[in-house]
Design a protein that fits this description.
Elements lengths: L11 E4 L2 E11 L7 E8 L5 E7 L5 E2 L3 E11 L2 E6 L5 E5 H4 L11 E7 L2 E6 L3 E9 L12 E6 L3 E6 L7 E5 L4 E6 L2
Antiparallel strand pairs: 1-2, 1-5, 2-3, 3-4, 6-7, 6-9, 7-8, 9-10, 11-12, 11-14, 12-13, 14-15
Length: 187
């Protein structure tokens, strides 16, 4: 059993008989009374996010996550097909498990799938992905007096903000944690 001081953001716990991943966590120590935490908990089975106040006397079971390397094969009807890189076994992962990260998945991309009690609860993508810019307004000579930006659509249909000098067809590196443009990849 773990207490309030043992948990934090991105920790997986068993609470009220369900497995949750702590998405957001704020520890509060008031002037009077016991400490508590405001937390957003993501139910790993349903994908539902709930907000709860966790008290100092609440007890949690910390869930140990097992990490396995997989290769993304393709999306199909709200699921993603992955192949275990060690034994070539193929599995499907529901879009709810992937969450917002699914927008960065590309065919043949390797990522880690995290298991808790035999169920896939999360995925860890590479920190950076390299994608081709499909659509953006053209950059004009002389538009670089200030560090201006413009919207762009990259592979997978994701809309990001890029500098003015980026053109359609350019390859860009994107940080998957912040969804931000990092740099243009030389051709």
């Amino acid at each position: 059993m773990a207490s309030l001081s043992d948990i934090g953001k991105n920790v997986t716990i068993k609470y009220d008989g369900r497995i949750y991943k702590i998405v957001d966590y704020q520890h509060v120590k008031p002037g009077k009374g016991a400490a508590f935490a405001r937390a957003k908990l993501k139910n790993v089975e349903t994908g539902q996010i709930v907000e709860d106040t966790l008290r100092d006397n609440d007890k949690f079971d910390l869930i140990r996550l097992e990490r396995r390397k997989y290769q993304c094969l393709y999306p199909e009807n709200g699921t993603y097909w992955f192949m275990d890189v060690d034994n070539y076994e193929q599995i499907t992962v529901d879009l709810k498990v992937m969450g917002d990260k699914a927008k960065w998945l590309k065919e043949n991309m390797e990522c880690d799938l995290l298991y808790a009690e035999g169920k896939i609860v999360d995925a860890e993508l590479p920190l950076f992905v390299e994608l081709k810019v499909l659509e953006t307004a053209p950059g004009y000579k002389g538009d670089t007096a200030t560090a201006g930006t413009k919207p762009a659509i990259v592979e997978g249909g994701v809309k990001i903000t890029v500098p003015l000098f980026i053109n359609p067809g350019d390859m860009v590196r994107i940080d998957t944690r912040t969804d931000e443009y990092m740099e243009r990849i030389s051709k």
